Amino acid sequence: MRHGMHSVVDWLSFAVWENGVLIRSLSLSPDGGIQENIGKPYDFPARLSGDRSVRRGTGRP
Questions:
Q1: Cβ neighbours of residue 27 under 8 Å, at least 6 residues apart?
Q2: What separation in angstroms does the CA of 1 have from each of 11, 13, 19?
Q3: Which end of the chain is more exposed for a tag (fewer CB within 10 A), N or C?
């Protein structure tokens, strides 16, 4: 797995290869939208969907 992030522009990118074959790749940012979206999206735990607000002062959802 490889990833990159640039916090100044809120850009994120990651890619996963298995045996030299690209399985999943995603690159996105708020201003540029989705630049690359290859492969089947991964399932994430339910706790990551829905309300993801951060309580002021705790740094935790």
A1: 11, 12, 13, 14, 34, 35, 36, 37
A2: 17, 11, 12
A3: N
